[in-house]
Amino acid sequence: MAKKRFFEKHQRWFKRLLEILPGLISWNMILFPFWGAFICPLWVCYYVLAFDIYWVYQSAFLGITSLMAHYRIEASKMMDWMGEVKMFPDWKKVGHIIIITTYKEPIHILERTLEAIAKQDFPLKQITVVLAMEVKEDKKQREEKARVLKKEFGHKFGHFLITVHQLKSGEIVGKASNENYAGREAKKYLVDKLGYDINYLTITSCDADHTYHPKHFSYLAFKFLDDPKRYLKFWQPAVMFYNNFWRLPALTRVTNTFGTIWNIALTIRTDRLINCQNYSASLKLIDEIGYWDPDTIPEDYRIFFKAFFAKNGQVEVEPITLPLWADAAESASTWQTFKNQYEQYKRWAWGVSDDPYIVVRYLSSKNASFINKTLRVFHVIRDHLLWPVNWFIITLGINIPTILNPQFAKTVMGYTLPRFSSIILTFSLLFLGVIIWVNAKQCPKRPKYVSRFRALLIPLEFILMPISGFFFNALPGIDAHTRLMLGKYLEYRVTEKV
Question: Per-residue pLDDT tens for 147-156?
Answer without folding.
Answer: 999 999 999 9
